[in-house]
Write a structure and sequence with these properties.
Largest sheet: 4 strands, antiparallel
Shape: globular
Structural class: alpha+beta
Radius of gyration: 26 Å
Strand content: 5-15%
Number of helices: 9
């Protein structure tokens, strides 16, 4: 039996592992700086980042230098404006550039999406159909119904790093996207696939028509999930009419 250079006996290469993943070797303070930098949509300065981190600029600059050496951050020079040195700008590398395993999956996914967009008359419908099949396969319902479907959908959204948070208006805000770069570049297919996954989860519970509805990039910093109206809930109760009289100084007086 032949043996590979690292003692491997299985045919083919081994997958990219955490010990080859630069993100797993970051200290907590350095990971915090990288996380804060990733929240900026545009390249930013040390001063702006240090304010966001509530740290001294020299401390932040030291972390940035190390992150640049790890290929997790890029440094550029802003266009010159007037006298003085142009500003130095920093930007976090996209996730697919930071992690080798994510990067390769992103390359494969991009190639597939481009083929779908070129070959399908309705790429969004294809994405939704594929998502429905995937959603059905993600769950093994123990009981039917909307409540169980919603619980399963929430669990999967959390497990797949969408960071769902309930809002006061009854909606759900998705504050993260595990394939954000793909979703921005190919919204029609990727977001339709995500909608299909939710629909498939609800279909597996026998209530596909009650599936959550995603509105991509609906609000600053998040996508929006809304719930369709319950057909068995009945019409909304109208508000009570305003009283025709009001009390003033302890006495009831007619309205003007």
């Amino acid at each position: 039996m032949s043996v590979g250079p690292d003692g491997d006996t299985a045919l083919g290469p081994r997958p990219a592992t955490p010990r080859r993943d630069p993100l797993t070797h970051l200290s907590v303070p350095r990971a915090f700086v990288l996380e804060k930098l990733g929240q900026f949509s545009n390249p930013t300065t040390v001063v702006e980042l240090s304010e966001a981190c509530d740290q001294h600029p020299n401390t932040v600059r030291e972390h940035l230098d190390a992150l640049i050496r790890a290929d997790l951050v890029t440094r550029t020079t802003a266009a010159a404006r007037g006298r003085g040195r142009p500003a130095i700008l920093y930007q976090a590398e996209p996730l697919d550039a930071r992690r080798p395993q994510v990067r390769e999956y992103a390359v494969l996914a991009t190639a597939m999406i481009l083929e779908i967009e070129a070959s399908q008359d309705d790429p969004a419908a294809w994405g939704r159909s594929a998502g429905i099949r995937r959603g059905r396969g993600l769950v093994t319902p123990t009981e039917p119904g909307v409540t169980a479907a919603e619980a399963a959908a929430r669990e999967i959204l959390t497990r797949h790093h969408f960071d769902p948070v309930d809002a006061a208006d009854g909606t759900i805000r998705l504050r993260q996207c595990p394939v954000l770069d793909l979703a921005r570049a190919h919204t029609e297919v990727v977001c339709a696939l995500h909608q299909g996954v939710l629909t498939g989860i609800y279909e597996a519970h026998g209530v596909g028509e009650r599936a959550m509805r995603i509105t991509p990039f609906a609000l600053p910093g998040c996508c929006l999930i809304e719930f369709p109206p319950d057909p068995d809930a009945g019409p909304p109760v109208p508000p009570e009419p305003e009283p025709s009289r009001r009390r003033r100084a302890g006495r009831a007086v007619p309205q003007d």
